[in-house]
Design brief:
By secondary structure, the protein is of the alpha/beta class. It contains 10 helices and 15 strands. The structure holds adenosine-5'-diphosphate and magnesium ion.
């Protein structure tokens, strides 16, 4: 599939912009701060309903405006679809498909698929677990849009359960009668039931990613060291289970309940949920050592690129996708070439040059490697100009 047209109204720095796009490579060129990343961020948002730069939606709306509009025409084979998203911070986003009546934003997931490479990706390797969880969840949602609802349910249950644990803790410390523990039991079951679905889906995804990551790492780093990844569930640590087991949702649900049972007094004391998918991590290893803390800067970059390339290949392969479609996602490369040494830069360029649609941002045309020279759009002061 490819994105044929992007329109933005009051998104980030743009009052209004229209950007027609062709398949193949397009480079968005302009000095810093001109709005290049804002354009790729908008395309990525339609695919994942989130920004790769900020956790919430508020910064996406142009300052002074109440809501942002992102409209996109996506073409797949001989069929086109127009997706429109209205982003209103603090309210549920609304979507329209082909100009129809408004639906929940979630309903349009899966129509546009993207894989975004960005300077922030280094944090996948060097940073905290939340970035790695987000990496997995964004990919899950693109493959299985239904999981978007499960993930928001998980967030809601965690918020409510934490609030209850805090109340229980305060009551306990004041030597008052504790809150009704049966209410907590109800939230334990909800967390176990929803958490198990997320955990099982993430573990299966990691198993599917593993060979792609190993292969992509070898290609990016010219065969130096073997990259591996393991899903590290907080559940496994509590129950002292071997990581990477293939338990089904019913067993995982029972295991989560057991773990919460063991942790109850600790959870009340701390006022927070201590076991579940929100405390899990993805362990990245190079030659048997954790990449975080051991890998060099260059190796960390190779690993980050390998994770993104693996996403691209998994989506392209299409196995296990919820909808039947030619799965190839749009590749978005935001300012990454400037971050890489010459060797990695050339490798990455070769590996993505054959993709159906690649959108690159760079400060100057010279930053775009030779195999990726294609169409050029200049981005300056909120205006986009196609350069012939
Ligand atoms: N919500 C917003 N309202 C208005 N301007 C914004 C908003 N968010 C970001 N900007 C502006 O967008 C510009 C950055 O755009 P960006 O796409 O990151 O630039 P670059 O071309 O360097 O990738 C900055 O000038 C920033 O102030
Ligand atoms: Mg930028």
């Amino acid at each position: 599939m490819h994105v044929a047209h992007l329109s933005l109204v009051d998104f980030r720095s743009y009052t209004h912009v229209e950007l027609p796009l062709d398949p193949g490579v397009t480079a968005l060129i302009g000095p810093n701060g001109q709005g290049k990343t804002n354009l790729v961020e908008a395309i990525g948002y339609v695919a994942t309903l989130g920004s790769h730069r900020v956790p919430g939606d508020a910064p996406l709306v142009r300052s002074g405006a109440d809501r942002a509009l992102v409209r996109m025409r996506a073409v797949r084979g001989d069929r086109a679809a127009t997706v429109e998203l209205e982003i209103t911070p603090g309210k549920a986003n609304r979507a329209r498909l082909n100009g129809g009546s408004p639906v929940r934003a979630r309903e349009v997931l899966g129509i546009v698929r993207t894989v975004l490479f960005a300077p922030e990706d280094l944090a996948l390797v060097k940073g905290d677990p939340d970035g790695r969880r987000r990496y997995l969840d964004d990919l899950l949602v693109q493959r299985t849009p239904r999981l978007s609802g499960v993930l928001s349910d998980l967030d809601r249950v965690l918020r409510q359960r934490s609030a209850l644990l805090k109340t229980a803790g305060t009551a306990m410390r004041a030597h008052r009668q504790s809150v009704d523990l049966r209410t907590l039991d109800v939230w334990d079951s909800k967390l176990a039931q929803i958490g198990a679905q997320v955990l099982v889906a993430r573990r299966a995804l990691v198993d599917q990613l593993r060979p792609h990551v190993a292969q992509a790492y070898e290609q990016v780093s010219s065969g130096q060291g073997a990259a591996d990844l393991t899903y590290k569930a907080s559940l496994d640590a509590v129950l002292e289970l071997e990581p990477g087991t293939q338990a089904g949702p019913d067993l995982v649900e029972a295991q989560l309940l057991e773990a919460m049972g063991q942790l109850r007094s600790k959870e009340i004391e701390r006022g927070t949920s201590l076991v579940g998918p929100h405390r899990d991590d993805l362990l990245l290893e190079l030659g048997g050592l954790p990449a975080r803390g051991y890998a060099s800067h260059g190796e960390s970059w190779s690993f980050a690129l390998a994770l993104r390339l693996a996403s691209y290949r998994l989506l392209t392969e299409g196995d296990g996708l919820e909808f039947e479609q030619d799965g190839e996602p749009v590749l978005l490369l935001d300012d990454v070439f400037a971050e890489l040494d010459v060797r990695r830069r050339d490798r990455l360029a070769e590996l993505v040059a054959g993709a159906g649609q690649v959108i690159i941002t760079a400060a100057v045309p010279q930053d775009v490697p030779e195999p990726l020279v294609g169409a050029r759009v200049d981005v300056m002061g909120g205006e986009v100009t196609r350069v012939l």
